[in-house]
Amino acid sequence: MITIKSDFDHGNIRVVDANDPGDVRLEIRPDGKAPFFQWFYFRVEGVKEKALRMRIENAGGASYVLGWSDYRAVASYDGEDWFRVDARYEDGVLTIEHAPRAETVEYAYFAPYATSRYRRFMEAQERAPLLSRSVIGKTLDGQDIDLLSAGEGERALWVIARQHPGETMGSWWMEGFLERLADADDAAGRALRAKATIRVAPCMNLDGARRGHLRTNAAGADLNRAWRNASMDVSPEVCLVREKMRETGVDFFLDVHGDEAIPNNFLDGAEGIPSWDARHEALFARYSGLLLNESTDFQTKDGYPAPPPGKANLDIAANYVAETWGCLSMTLEMPFKDANVNPDPVYGWSPERCRKLGRDNLAVMARIVDDLR
Fold first, then answer.
1. CB of 253 closer than 8 Å to CB of 294
2. In what order do the strands lie in the sheet with 266-268?
3. pLDDT at 320 over 90
4. Containing H/E element for 254?
5. What tens digit of pLDDT does each residue of 72-126 get?
């Protein structure tokens, strides 16, 4: 007899039938007040050396069906080491096959980052002498919205992640970025702190993360489509961060995300905003080029097509910030699959590689900070 559970922080799955380990039938639950779904995370018990065949039967209705192409799920025996397992998508069904070496194993769309881990990490950052932590308000579920800051320089840098709660790579990226930012012995961190004040919202969508959502908060709002018309009733996370930005100004903005379909890391600029000009383009090209030299996991060939001039969606964070403050403003996208420019057959794109990319981005920020204004 096997047992499948997802009634925990960040979990998501519905069991249709689990009587036969070789024919387990599952479904992903949609976000609570919105139809989005793709994120799954569940625990299977009593399965040592059993040939599991688990079919997610509603995968064909997922929000980003192209994300299933060449996709492999992640699994872990200890909640820390997440490795890839075989999966295939056919006729609207995602089938995961694995023979566990332990009685209990967890499976997920990408390495999970639950709110409980986030709180432990925030407690550690609060003890870091070079970081300052403040609570700028509450989510709709009553969770603290944290803002970290470091440095005393005149440039105002802003970095946020996890607007979409299922894009957990943003939180793993933040671990690497913040650890380097708080390292007194790191030359790049020292240089950046001397010239800039860096403000970081490490997890924008805590309610969605705890509820096991893919894309939305407790009210069913997609935070990365709420920046022009944020409200405390529906999207307080954006509303409160945006108000802080108005107090401090913004000279640089990076929003950290994950992309379901594209198997590489890439940057998306704010092309298409009404004020896009040669200066915007030069700054974006310089940052991209520096990151290309810094990181073996980054590339500039794959990415999103630029919208026509003046047609950018200003509800999106990077576009809204670029147009409002006239600054270098970008979205960083990481893969759910692997970075094809530097593939890893065991782990694919992984938490450790996310951390490294976070550290690499800090080095680039330190090199470009003088050029921001």
1. no
2. 132-138, 144-150, 196-201, 155-161, 252-259, 328-335, 266-268
3. yes
4. strand 252-259
5. 999 999 999 999 999 999 999 999 999 999 999 999 999 999 999 999 999 999 8
Six-digit token string for 360: 């690499």
Q: How far apart are CA 199 and CA 4, in angstroms?
A: 40
Determine the number of helices (DSSP H) and then strands (DSSP E) in the chain: 8, 16
d(Cα 120, Cα 113) in Å, to the nearest integer? 11
Q: Residue type for 102, please? A: A
Chain centre distance of CA 244: 21
Residue showing tokens 């994300």: 67
Mean pLDDT, residues 336-361: 98
**Per-residue tokens: 46:** 């009593």
CB atoms within 10 A of CB 94: 26
Identify whether 333 is a catalytic site residue.
yes
* Domain ranges, ordered by start, for the chain: 3-108, 115-371
- How crowded is residue 9: how many other Cβ atoms within 10 Å of its Cβ? 15
Section 10-29 average pLDDT: 98
Please give the biggest Cα pair distance in the chain.
Answer: 64
Give the domain 3-108 fold. Immunoglobulin-like (2.60.40)
Q: Full-prediction pTM beyond 0.85?
A: yes
Rounded distance between C-alpha atoms, residue 17 and residue 34, angstroms: 25
Range 115-371 has CATH code 3.40.630.10: yes
> Is the Cβ–Cβ distance between 166 and 215 less than 8 Å?
yes
Collapsing DSSP states into helix, strand and coil, what is residue 236? Answer: helix
State the catalytic residue, choosing from 27, 271, 323, 333. 333
Beta bridge partners of 258: 334
Question: How many Å apart are CA 321 and CA 154, to the nearest integer?
Answer: 18
**Average pLDDT rounded to a whole number, residues 40-64:** 97
Distance CA(5)–CA(18), nearest Å, equals 11
Q: What is the token pair recorded at 357? A: 């990319």
Q: Is the dihedral of CA 354, 357, 359, 362 positive or negative?
A: negative
Phi, psi of 356 (to 5 degrees): -65, -40
Task: Determine contact, residues 33/216, Cβ cutoff 8 Å.
Answer: yes
Residue type, 278: A
